[in-house]
Structure formats: structure tokens, C-alpha cells
Amino acid sequence: MVKKLKAYWKLIKSLQTFLLLLTGITGFISSRCPYTSLDLMLLMIISLFLAISGTTIFNMVFDRDIDSKMKRTQKRPLPMGEITTKEAIVLGIILTVVGLAIAFYLSLLYGLIILAGLFIDFVIYTVWLKRISAWSILWGGISGGMPILAGRVLGVGEVDLTGILLAASILFWIPTHIMTFNIRHFEDYNNAKIPTFASKYGFQNTRLIISLSTILSSLAFVLGAFVLGLEWGFIRVLIILAVIALGFAVNSILKPNDKTNFRVFKVASLYMVAAMFIIALGSIYL
Questions:
Q1: Which residues contact 264 (CB under 8 A, 6 or more apart)?
Q2: What is the Cα Rg of the chain in Å?
Q3: In the chain, what are the domains?
Q4: Which of 26, 106, 207, 268 lies 20 to 30 Å from 249, alpha-carbon distance?
Q5: CA-based nearest residue to 184, from 73, 271, 67, 72
Q6: Is the pTM of this model over 0.90?
Q7: Cα–Cα distance measured from residue 75 to residue 20, given in angstroms and rounded to the nearest whole number
Q8: Cα 252 to the center of its chain, rounded Å
Q9: CB-based contacts of 36: which residues, under 8 Å, 6+ apart?
């Protein structure tokens, strides 16, 4: 039983799921005080966690043949036979349906954004484009930006400029993440016949895009904080961290190699997490 539960936990890719959940919480806190909206925030967390987990499981089911061919992913629960395809599908349906039901109960617009994110992630990105186009990561980025937009929308009741900027900051971070792993596991992706920017446009151009994406993500966070109206103290910290991230990005452009590229990825990831905490904390003090 414990072994099976551990396999299910791996199936939802908990680190990725909680990172997306953190963005949704940030979006919500940017719109209203969590202390006075605790019940609503808890229901939002549950709905996001279930919906994201369910979609992740669907992705794992559809990509199980790819995962079995790649060293990085061949020990996932489905390729290893720890969970059957039927079990994964049933769990994915339950989590997704319950998550969406709670989302639509909370707000029609919030539910629609969550549904759009799931559709883009699974149908457009995973099923349709991932195996035929390197540009599929654009849609992966859009779906990745949906949780923070959804959280913001649930709080303010509409799609506003702040929500769009926060979603854009995540959208621009996604290529940094995906392309870095495309380079580090280049042979894996080639063996699985997955088109990547590295295979289509070369390592040099891919590293340039990673650096530019980091710059755009950093700027989107700062602009989002400015439009949100955070106090200058919080914005200054964001700017300082953004300058540090930009420095690593520029260094990677001037001295492109695997080491500087991976540093950009780590710095961009740390910056994204730090920026969300700063925006959430700054919003509480508004």
C-alpha cells in the first residue's frame, strides 16, 4: 500500500505541481488579503492542486512510451510498471473532475481559466504538438502561466493587466526550464524523436533564447509588481534580483556553454520563486 501511494505521488510530479500551485497562491494573494479570505484561498489551493495533478497524470499516461526510451524518465511509475495505465487514467479523471468542479463552484471565470490551462497543456501541448514541433514549448509556457492568472482572477473577478504580466513572467520562464533540459539530455530527446530547439536550431541559438527568456521573465515580474502598486522597497528588491539574473543571462550570451547555461536556469528559477514571495509579501502590506 505504501509503495503504491509513493508511486501515485511520483505520478503527479509533486515538485512541478507545487511550484505551479505556488504561482496560483501568489496570484490570489496579489489580489486580496489571505487572512480575510482564508476559506476561499483554501478551496482555490485544493482545486488547483487536484486539477494540476490530474492533468499531469494524463500527460504521464500519454507520454509513457517516450518516458520508457529516455534515461531521465524511464524510472517513472508507468514505464516501471508500478502503476497500470488503467489505474493512472482513473486517478487522473477523478482528480481533474473534482478539481474543475470546485473551480467552477468558486467562479465561472476562474473555472474557465483552469479548464483552458488543462486543455492547452494536455491537448495542444502534449497530444498535438510536442512530438511534431519544437515550438510546442510556447503552448507549454502559456499553460504554465494559467495558475497564477487564475489565482489573480479569483481574487479580483476579472482578467487585468497585473494578471497578464504575472502570467507572462511564468510563460517566459518555461523555455528556460525546458530548453535547459533539452540541451542537458539532448541524446535522450533525440532517441525519443522529440523535436527540440537544440536539435532544430542548434545549441548556440537555444542558449541565446534561454538567456533572452530569463531577461523577459525578470522584466515581467518587475512590471507586474509596479502595476500592482507594491511599495518601492519591495520593487527595489525585485529590481536588484532582476539585475543579478540579467547579469547571469548576459554572461551566458557572451560565454555560451553548458555550465553558464545551467547557471542561468538555476538563477532564473531561484529568482522566480523569490519574486513570487516578494510579490505575495508586498501585496499583504498594500
A1: 176, 180, 210, 211, 214, 248, 249, 252
A2: 19
A3: 1-134+146-156 (1.10.357.140), 160-286 (1.20.120)
A4: 26
A5: 72
A6: yes
A7: 23
A8: 23
A9: none
Which pLDDT band holds residue 35 (cuts at 50, 70, 90)?
Answer: low
How far is CA 44 from each of CA 21, 27, 257, rounded to the nearest angstrom? 10, 11, 41
User: How far apart are the C-alpha atoms of 85 and 69, rounded to whole Å?
Assistant: 17
Q: What's the whole-number average pLDDT of the chain?
A: 94
Tell me whether residue 101 is exposed, middle or buried, using C-beta atoms within 10 angstroms of its C-beta: 0 to 12, 13 to 18, 19 or more.
middle
Three cell numbers, residue 60: 504521464
Question: All 3 cell numbers of residue 64?
Answer: 509513457
Helices (H), the chain: 2-11, 14-29, 38-62, 64-67, 77-80, 85-106, 108-119, 136-156, 161-184, 186-191, 197-201, 203-228, 232-254, 258-284
Q: Is the dihedral of CA 250, 149, 40, 52 positive or negative?
A: negative
Dihedral sign (CA 211, 216, 219, 220) = negative
Q: DSSP for 156-169?
A: HSS--HHHHHHHHH
